[in-house]
Amino acid sequence: MSTTALTRPLVTSLIEDAVTAPSMHNAQPWKFVCRTDTGVIELHGDPLRGMPHEDPDHRALHLGCGAALLGLRVGAAHRGRHAAVRLLPRPEDRWHFADVQLHGADDVDRGLVALHTALFRRHTSRFPFTEEQIPSEVIDGLRASALLEGCQLVVPGDWHTDAVLEIVHDSERFEAADAAVRAEIAAWTRTGAPGEGSETEGIPSYAFGPRQYDVTSPVRDFDSPRQVPYRASARFEKRPQIALLGTVDDNPQQWLMAGQALHRVLLRATLDGLSTSLMSQPLEWSELRSAIRDPTSTAAFVHMVLRLGYGPQGRATPRRPASEVLTFD
């Protein structure tokens, strides 16, 4: 299998695809290094973009970087290349997450090619969805997408959905009582107030969505305490349709796999006409995370709660340019 030369235009275009990935609070905790002499693109996590109070083990940081890795793989497939990935290639370097080599078209994943059009269309939607049920064949396709990345997507039954939603509300109460967590969230929100961080990262106020009249949906409200004037309120769906993304084990390799599965599921959902949002809040508290899992599933560790449905698409949130996250060596 021939190795593809890593030209600057090619690698830059791949990273532009990769950085469309979702990450916790849009922190974008990834760095890429292109080793032109060895033909390797390295993916590194950036601990400076970690969240010590909400993500002390850096699990969510790994998820975001895994999602970016899937975006790179989609971009490579779109350009007729196969991205051969080696996870955690240097155990002594905990922030060196993956090495990627590009090969010729013989082994291109056509399923990844099909996802490319969704990369720049997929956005988190914190708006109300309709009560329309998602067809079972669409759910089956999302499950298959997770399985392709070695993970499981579990759609809970009625009793488990009620339990998960109650745990979400518990996590909101935990958050409200923890000043350090609230300050960490505030550091990654952008309301236009003086002294906020860069406009190429974080959650802008236009992506907050409306306030909920009655808290029925697992949508995190980033406007707390309320700082955005004239923000609309709306009633959300009474019966949110949720899914749980999980793995058998709970370690950095599994987290990177889960990040890739998460992005693949979200892209597939986008192509299927679904809107999506993510809820990590109950997974940020060790007291609550274990209670989220489905006791009948072999996926013992849940990494994300997904809300799925039909409704308004979210707007694009900002991304750092490739020149900020990519270096050539």
Describe this structure in words.
This protein has nine helices and 13 strands. It is α/β, with parallel strands linked by helices. It has a five-stranded mixed β-sheet with strand order 3-4-2-1-13. A four-stranded antiparallel β-sheet has the order 5-10-12-11, with helices on both faces. Helix 1 packs across helix 2, helix 2 crosses helix 7 and helix 4 runs antiparallel to helix 7. The chain is globular and about 55 Å long. The relative contact order is 0.20.
Number of strands: 13
Measured between the Cα atoms of the first and last residue, the distance is 24 Å
Strand order within the widest beta sheet: 3-4-2-1-13
Number of separate helices: 9
Observed structural traits:
9 helices, 329 residues, alpha/beta, single chain, 33% helix, 19% strand, four-stranded antiparallel β-sheet, five-stranded mixed β-sheet
